[in-house]
Amino acid sequence: MGTSVVPPSLDARTGVASRDVVIDQAKGLAVRIYRPSRPAGGTNEKLPVVLYFHGGAFVVESAFGPAYHGYLNALAARAGVIAVSVNYRLAPEHPLPAAYDDSWSALQWVLSNSNSNASASARHASRSWLSRHGDMSRLFVAGDSAGGNIAHNLAMRAGLPDGTNARIIIRGVARARTRGRSGRGGSSARGGTGRATRRRRCRRARGGGWAARACW
Predict the structure, then answer these.
(1) For each of the chain's 216 residues, which pLDDT tens digit applies?
(2) Cystine design at 34: which of 83, 115, 191, 194 (Cβ 3.0–4.6 Å)?
């Protein structure tokens, strides 16, 4: 479950283009960026940016899986946004807070590469999509299931003072409930794993104790 992946592509159905970028080679942390074929309304204005985290009880699934790839294509096309889907590290090999740390690294990467004055090495290929098309004044974080938990924790961390003068403004946080391949609203993007199973996986990922109390 959650082991199959698909490559980035130009999606024929939505017209959305996607590319992969490794943002931390040592950790194996990567993102897939989605860009609509044209800005909403046919103008050249910059688009909102959505930083997205997939579900899977912190244990399974991938940002590069077919279900999430299809969902992010649809999200980018219908909402008219630049979407950045994060392939964070999974438990049990990388128990929490690894996923939370990866979300912070991904946010910092998005912010640093959205600047039109960024260095040339930071602006090539996929990264230039953020500087050319992304509007950081309209930055949102979102996720489903475990990814919703990650988005929530990321937003809280971004709101805490970090000893610098930098301000991180997140315009909104969304806990998505994606549809499965069946198209029924009751299933998630990964096919509707039962709540009890998700809870057990979450508790294993958190190593038990007080942290496991937050599992849904």
Answers:
(1) 567 999 999 999 999 999 999 999 999 999 999 999 865 555 678 999 999 999 999 999 999 999 999 999 999 999 999 999 999 999 999 999 999 999 999 999 999 987 655 444 444 555 578 988 999 999 999 999 999 999 999 999 998 876 554 667 898 888 776 655 333 333 344 444 455 665 665 566 555 544 444 454
(2) 83
